[in-house]
Write a structure and sequence with these properties.
A five-stranded mixed beta sheet has the order 1-6-7-3-9, with no helix packed on it. It has about 110 residues and is mainly β. The chain has one domain. It is globular and about 30 Å long. The protein is built from no helices and nine strands.
Length: about 110
């Protein structure tokens, strides 16, 4: 297992009181509008994390987990993708494309 991370140029801004959605999935492939001054956090205990920057004003997430426990907490300027409680030990892969300028924090356990 490996964790590959490309950190995109740092930029942050207070997200304020924006509407957020939190949902659990076993796999997810979605694209949504996102502020280039926002922040993205991606966390997994085991598996792969791949973050790439692009010139679009959108975030694209392709996430797959054996444990049916992908948790996404999303607003227009803040996103948190992680593995929720589950069996632990299942494989996970997060592939996330973010606008240049987004602050990215990624961590993996193995």
């Amino acid at each position: 297992m490996c964790v590959a991370v490309l950190l995109v140029a740092i930029g942050s801004r207070d997200a304020g009181a924006q509407r957020r959605r939190t949902t659990n999935y076993s796999s997810r492939d979605t694209t949504f509008a996102f502020d280039k001054n926002g922040s993205v956090t991606v966390t997994t205990n085991s598996g792969d994390i791949v973050i790439t920057g692009w010139s679009r004003d959108q975030v694209h997430v392709h996430a797959v987990s054996d444990d049916d426990n992908i948790r996404m907490d999303v607003s227009s300027s803040r996103m948190n993708v992680e593995i929720g409680s589950g069996r632990r030990g299942g494989e996970t892969r997060f592939e996330v494309s973010v606008p240049f300028g987004v602050r990215v924090m990624a961590s993996g356990g193995s």
